[in-house]
Design brief:
- This protein has one domain.
- The chain has 15 helices and five strands.
- A three-stranded antiparallel beta sheet has the order 2-1-5. Strands 3-4 form a two-stranded antiparallel ribbon.
- A hairpin with an 8-residue loop joins strand 3 and strand 4.
Length: 396
Amino acid sequence: MIYYLSQQMLDWAHGTAWESRLSALRLFRYITVRSAGAAITALMLSWWLGPLIIHWLKQLKFGQDYADKAEAAGGLAARVLSKKGTPTMGGILIVTVLVFSTMLWAQWNAQVELTLLAVLVLSGLGFYDDYAKIVQQSGGGTPPRVKLLVQTALGLFVGLYLWRWPAVSILQYPGKKSVIHMQSNLVSDLMLPFCKYPYEVGAVVGVVIVLLAIVGSSNAVNLTDGLDGLAIGCTIIVSFVFLIFTYLAGNFKAAGYLQIPFVSGAGELTIFCAALIGAGMGFLWFNCHPAQVFMGDTGSLALGGAFGIIAVLIHQPLVLVIAGGIFVLEAVSVMLQTGWFKYTKRRYGAGQRLFLMAPLHHHFEKKGWYESQVVMRFYILCVLFAVVALATLKVR
């Protein structure tokens, strides 16, 4: 919105005495300037709206009046404070600020619109799930098959849309006499980390990869959201990685120098990532231990889905596995725990566990780590995963 308004004012002032006076508005053409504006706007709005939304959620009694799964399982001696009664659905704050800041500072193109659509759909799904948990007062919520159905429908829509959409990524390779340009489809061609050249996998496999990126990432962030500040802190770190990736993917010269896919218009996703960092930092202000509010599925499903679709739109879906390594570990721990328990129960008559409790952060809680210890150590691991993900830009 600000970009279009500034350009209209420059066009109006062209050839008049106002042209030199309004020349500073040219700054809004730069993605870096608008990204900084989006981050600051999101942060300030979060600080302003945070107390209001928390108070509103308390008035509506949208609090977690049931013991969470970790407390219900018992054995968490290191957890001093119970989370019972803390307002949930704080994802409303994140999503509201994120969408507003992005629409205010970004140019509206297909990539931005598709990302915002995914965020709103998954946020709505998460809101319904959180509301169902509050009504049931048991933590049950929406049946998993319903959540998976909606996520799958969204993933298939995005995958099929990108397959039929004429947008491609352009890869530039130095030849003997000139630079060789190769066009690559966002869906049917797969880019692997640490590799220069894409692999043709076909439309069907490509759509499945898009589906797994969106659904898997959405659920992985959701599983990570179990300790004060854990999910949102890791989200901020991963957002910094994609801030860099989206900027480079949208810059023809930078993409050519690093020999990574250039995707026209992807640079505007940098504004989205910057807004996500600002919104995340603002929410962390209220979500750090002891949390005043939880994001709930309203926030976690939306944020995870956003990472999935951004990774696909910049033609780097597998980089998400590296950058979001903490989310992957959390999701894998749940799958291993569930699978091993079912297997041993069927084989030996009694289920056995690989971890003391899943997701992984609860395993360390049951080992006696304090909640703040788990969170900070997971932050450190998340930074390490982020560094490895950024290394893929140069090590190819």
